[in-house]
Design brief:
The structure holds 2 protein chains of 2 kinds. Chain A has 15 helices and 10 strands. Chain A is an alpha+beta fold. By secondary structure, chain B is α/β, with parallel strands linked by helices. The chains are: A alpha+beta, B alpha/beta.
């Protein structure tokens, strides 16, 4: 048997497949990875420290910059935490706007996950298709909030802007279009033999591992754990919609791919129902005091973001700024299992496994 | 070389300085700490809302006449079916409302008195079936809204107007308008389901609405209550039908003109929206009552124990039976945080309790959702949010540690997911986790001075 010398390989921080500034120090023996050490923190901006000097409303724009691919869920989690502490009842119309915005964000986020994942594996065109369709969502959210990615749309007690005239109809029109596109996606990629060779049976972990490593979202559901906070601990108005929790049992990269694509379909179902039930009129802001002060105490809430459960912990001493703010950032937790997955894998699988975790570095680094 | 030494010295000095300042600050803070009073501004409105909405339901069960089959149907279905039906019916109603907005041309917003004035017998005379159907749907929503509004205005009294439409309603249901009937049934079903759901929530921790139901002369049996609610809703629907008939008549005479349409649509939409919002608000208020009622008024707390209290008792009991009576420093329900049972372990029992929480088969908290530290100036605290996929239950585990020497056992050997969060807590707060395989500064660089999330942190810069 030929013996090879161990080699240290630096992947990133500037590497397209890392989806941001993420560095992976890999020790390889020939082509086999013997050790992988993730290095993160390049994008750490100290949101939690900054928040200690900011009023609650002022913190919201900072949350946009954590998971910048689905900023709406980040907006929501902090508003939800403060609302939970203060016992604020959000008006129905605002709740609908929030849910529609969040689900659109989820579709957009999964589209990016899908497009970039295929791009990582070497196919270029699906990425373009995904971004074309995502652009439509971005435009809609732009109409709603005035920003393409960093929405700063939600407020404690409701949302900042009402939907413009005909906006809900444009969302409604988008749903059948997206369904049609999804079929095309499947035709284009899902059955492709080269693609299947790259992802089937790669990066497998078990249900027990997933839970032990605190994975959540599609990464957890791809192992067969039927758990979705929208369904199982309903917040906002998610208990009014009929949708399925998508799971797969294989726990490999292909399973995660399928879970994400099918979750787009489920999100479209929610969007469809939300547009149907959308109240024709109503308030978009609850009656909240001008200066928001969370009552003394602490609270931790968690909701389902596209990448898993995003949580927000607030410790308040009754002032207008949080005493301590902490975000449970799903990508940060999801990435922990990576070193374990990579050991013994071929170096070519590194990108396939990392891509399937679907991280956003803004969120990993907080 | 000497430059490097200087740097190190500078760093050390900076740390010393920061510590000294922190001490001064802490003392100052300890002396002058003022805690704000809990929010009171928005509480009255919330209470008012829930009180407004409830009488609307409690007043209506007095109605004697209503389609008998609808509540029965709603009762027979399983809970799941009910929920599904609710969703479906709601969607249907929404679709209906939409259709109506597009196609209908009758005038006048639903005044509370209107359905009572118009004899509906003639409704069957006019041939415009489609218009009728549509109008029926519209008016249903309207009348429901009107009835609710009225009920709210009268604050619990049975409105005289509510009696009048009932005979009319029975007549309208005879007029062969099958579609409208079906729709009404669906709506009633959905409402019944919603009521049942809400009631389930009430049972979980809110006793007040149940009392109101009883005053309306219904037994406190769960099903009966659901039925009562369904009946109330059905009555409203029937009333709505009467209004619909009246509307249909108006349409039949054909005096509606296009100019009036705009206003009418708006008014209708408004009424529908109001009705929906109210129903939702009522449901939510009740749900919220369970979660937040406790800290809104202390008097309620005694009456309404948290729905999670049994879980907390169970955890405490199991832990005390197995680990001894004094492993926990404190345990309570955190009302601010969705009623999560919270256990405060002692510093030396923290690891043992955590281990027990995961491996005891009655508890089985297999998932670590969150771990972080907080600098409370008087002490440091580690907060761990655990979840059991088996029992679908959450628990918060906390431990207070010494601030000057923040050291605690690592949970990484129990939950692999605690690895990075503990690194983060070490990085940002300086908490040392013993037994951690690779405790390092995960977000900041290894050469960073100080721990930014400590309250005494002073940014260090060589240049300054």
């Amino acid at each position: 048997m030929i013996r090879t010398e161990e080699m240290l390989l630096n992947v990133g921080p500037q590497h397209p497949s890392t989806h941001g500034v993420f560095r992976l120090v890999v020790k390889i023996d020939g082509e086999i990875i013997t050790e992988a050490t993730p290095v993160i923190g390049y994008l750490h901006r100290g949101t939690e420290k900054l928040a200690e000097d900011l009023q609650y409303t002022q913190i919201i724009p900072y949350t946009d910059r954590m998971d910048y691919l689905s900023a709406m869920t980040n907006n929501y989690v902090i508003c939800h935490a403060v609302e939970t502490m203060m016992g604020i009842q959000v008006p129905e119309r605002a709740d609908f706007l929030r849910v529609i915005a969040m689900e659109l964000g989820r579709v957009a986020s999964h589209l990016v996950a899908w497009g970039t994942y295929i791009l990582d594996l070497g196919a270029t065109s699906p990425f373009i298709y995904a971004f074309r369709d995502r652009e439509m969502i971005i435009n809609m959210l732009n109409e709603l909030s005035g920003a393409r990615l960093t929405f700063n749309y939600m407020r404690v007690g409701g949302v900042k802007w009402d939907a413009p005239e005909g906006w809900v109809d444009s969302v409604k029109e988008f749903i059948p279009y997206m369904r049609e596109q999804l079929k095309g996606y499947h035709e284009l990629v899902t059955g492709n033999e080269i693609f299947l060779d790259r992802v089937k049976g790669v990066g497998v972990y078990t249900k027990e591992d997933a839970i032990n490593y605190s994975l959540s979202g599609p990464n957890l559901r791809s192992t067969g754990v039927k758990w979705d906070l929208r369904k199982d601990e309903p917040y906002s108005i998610y208990d009014r919609f009929d949708f399925n929790v998508v799971t797969r049992d294989e726990g490999d990269c292909l399973a995660r791919y399928h879970v994400r694509l099918e979750e787009i379909e489920e999100s479209l179902k929610i969007l469809e129902q939300a547009c149907e039930q959308f109240p024709a009129e109503g308030e978009i802001m609850a009656k909240v005091p001008k200066i928001i002060k969370a009552p003394k105490g602490e609270a931790f809430v968690r909701i389902e973001a596209p990448r898993g459960e995003i949580g927000c912990y607030i410790a308040s001493d009754g002032k207008k700024e949080p005493y301590r703010l902490k975000f449970r950032r799903p990508s940060f937790y999801n990435l922990q299992i990576l070193p374990k997955l990579l050991i013994g894998e071929n170096i070519a699988n590194l990108v396939a496994i990392l891509g399937a975790v679907d991280i956003v570095l803004g969120e990993v680094d907080g | 070389m000497s430059g490097e030494k200087d740097l190190n010295q500078l760093k050390r000095e900076a740390v010393e300085k920061a510590k000294a300042e922190a001490l001064a600050k802490r003392q100052a803070k300890a002396a002058g700490e003022v805690s704000g009073a809990p929010m009171q501004e928005d509480i009255p409105s919330e209470q008012a809302l829930s009180q407004d909405a409830k009488p609307a339901e409690s007043a209506e069960p007095a109605q004697p006449t209503q389609p008998v089959e609808t509540p029965a149907e709603a009762e027979n279905g399983a809970d799941l079916a009910k929920k599904k039906a609710a969703a479906a019916a709601k969607a249907k109603a929404a679709a209906l409302a939409k259709k109506k907005r597009e196609g209908i041309e009758d005038e006048a917003p639903a005044e509370p008195a209107q359905p009572a004035e118009t004899p509906a017998v003639e409704a069957s005379d006019d041939g415009d079936d489609l218009a009728k159907k549509k109008a029926a749907a519209v008016a249903k929503a309207k009348a429901a809204a009107a009835a609710k509004r009225k009920a709210m205005e009268l604050a619990g009294n049975t409105a005289p107007a509510e009696e009048t439409p009932t005979p009319v309603a029975s007549e309208t249901s005879d007029d062969g308008d099958d579609l409208a009937k079906k729709k009404a049934a669906a709506v009633a079903k959905a409402k019944a389901a919603a009521a049942a759901k809400r009631k389930a929530m009430e049972l979980a921790g809110d006793a007040a609405p149940a009392e109101e139901m009883e005053t309306a002369g219904v037994t406190d049996d769960a099903k009966a209550k659901a039925a009562a609610a369904a009946k109330a809703k059905a009555a409203a629907a029937a009333k709505a039908k009467a209004a619909a008939a009246a509307k249909a008549k108006a349409t039949g005479t054909g005096d509606a003109d296009t100019a009036a349409m705009g206003d009418d649509e708006k008014a209708k939409a408004k009424a529908a929206a109001v009705a929906k919002a109210k129903a939702a608000a009522a449901a939510k208020a009740k749900a919220a009552g369970a979660a937040k009622g406790g800290d809104v008024s202390p008097a309620d707390t005694a009456d309404k124990p948290s729905p999670n209290q049994p879980f907390l008792d169970k955890y405490r009991k199991v832990i005390e039976e197995n680990l001894g009576p004094d492993v926990l420093e404190d345990s309570y329900i955190n009302k601010l945080s969705k009623d999560v049972p919270t256990l405060v372990a002692k510093k030396d029992t923290y690891f043992k309790v955590a281990q027990f929480l995961k491996f005891n088969e009655l508890l089985g908290f297999d998932y670590l959702s969150e771990l972080h530290g907080t600098d409370f100036v008087t002490h440091m605290e580690v907060y761990v949010h655990l979840f059991s996929y088996k029992n679908r239950q959450s628990v918060a585990l906390k431990v207070k540690i010494d601030r000057d020497e923040p050291t605690i056992e690592s949970l990484q050997p129990i939950w692999a997911g605690a690895n990075w969060p503990e690194c983060e807590a070490y990085d940002l707060l300086g908490i040392k986790f013993t037994g951690h395989p690779n405790l390092h500064r995960i977000l900041l660089g290894e050469d960073w001075v100080g721990h930014p999330l400590r309250k005494d942190y002073e940014p260090y810069d060589v240049e300054v």
